[in-house]
Amino acid sequence: MDYSPLRTALADVVAIPVTPYDAEGAVDRAAYRALLRRLLDGGVKAVTPNGNTGEFYALTLEERRLVTELTVEEAAGRAAVLVGVGHDAATAVEAARHARAAGADMVMVHQPVHPYVAQDGWIDYHRTIAEAVPELGVVPYLRNPLIEGAAIARLGEACPNVIGVKYAVHDATRFAAVARDAGLDRFVWVAGLAELYAPSYWAVGATGFTSGLANVAPNISLNMLGALRAGDYPGAMKVWEQIRRFEDLRAERQSANNVTVVKEALAAMGLCRRDVRAPSKPLPEPRRAEVAAIVEGWSV
């Protein structure tokens, strides 16, 4: 298969939509569609339903399927749909096949949460999923610094549909080495730690980055992308400074408020409720005011 259109889609801003809830705590379908349309109208070309910012691990199986279907319907070819899948291998395969049936383009495989992960076992896990959906692009989500580039290379040799890697280890030097050991040109390297890490990761090989911020201000994320593509690092760092406090709030306490801050911003804009599911928690009042002030300053 020709995976080049999917590779192009990954080398961009890969937005991770939030999953809004209604007053009864169910997925708010209308709000979710509206948020997706806002991303698409804002110029986003790739979206990842059931990502971590979408509260993947807090959703039921039925809700994850619903979010997948809503995303494909709303995207309608305007953006590539990269569906998050995970849990045990059988569950991940079932989700990947559902994504294929729904009309998605790719799946992103969440890092296994099993406490005991061997290099060969990591390969086997992803190979099982990739071989089940050879028509789809497959993107491992890598947060484990112990997974070596050689393991990624072996996975790519076995599965040609593994076309990209979402790399989310807080170490640009490690990323540079892993990408080169795996194959810098073999995979599309997506900076999985979003805008604050995008300039450093871009400098050593990334060509796309993920974004939860894009839910709030897709123009800002695209401004960062444009600057990086132009090699304008001073311009990229101006964007970096603009969003720094917002992203720092998301990253506090090992990213405890990753989703909460984004939903708070959207609530301040009247776009969805601020509700999140445990183990996340809504922000206290002082933080809510700070987030609202940040967003107001962006004039979005």
UniProtKB/TrEMBL annotation:
It comes from the Bacteria. Keywords: Lyase. SUPFAM superfamilies: Aldolase. Belongs to the DapA family. PANTHER family: 5-DEHYDRO-4-DEOXYGLUCARATE DEHYDRATASE 2-RELATED (PTHR12128:SF19), DIHYDRODIPICOLINATE SYNTHASE (PTHR12128). This is Dihydrodipicolinate synthase family protein. It comes from Streptomyces rhizosphaericus.
